[in-house]
Design brief:
By secondary structure, this protein is an alpha+beta fold. It contains four helices and five strands, in the order αββαβααββ. The strands form two sheets. A three-stranded antiparallel β-sheet has the order 3-5-4. Strands 1-2 form a two-stranded antiparallel ribbon.
């Protein structure tokens, strides 16, 4: 992506991603940000690892997130709490809704 065409918001998001991820291919998170604005940028990027509209088992979510960040349980809870992932009430199935 050509940085000269990025909006100031996109530039800020890219800066946050570079700060908190040691790698974006494959996705490797160093630490979760404590500030909510930065956390939401990070969670949005992590959510993109899930195929939109596909249903995942709890085990699949655990494995995918464990490859991204050691504390996959906290990461999963944050994705759910901020609405980036949805799950059934029994926690057996997870999905990312299609982007609007």
């Amino acid at each position: 992506m050509d940085e000269s065409t990025l909006t100031p918001e996109q530039k800020q998001e890219e800066k946050i991603i570079r700060s908190f991820f040691s790698s974006t291919a494959p996705l490797k998170l160093k630490t979760l940000p404590s500030k909510q604005q930065k956390l939401q940028v990070v969670l949005k990027r992590v959510a993109e690892a899930f195929e939109s509209g596909k249903t995942y088992s709890e085990q699949e979510v655990k494995e995918l997130l464990a490859g991204i960040y050691a504390d996959h349980a906290t990461l999963r809870r944050s994705l759910i709490d901020f609405g980036y992932l949805k799950r059934t009430s029994n926690g057996a199935s997870y999905w990312r809704e299609a982007a609007e």
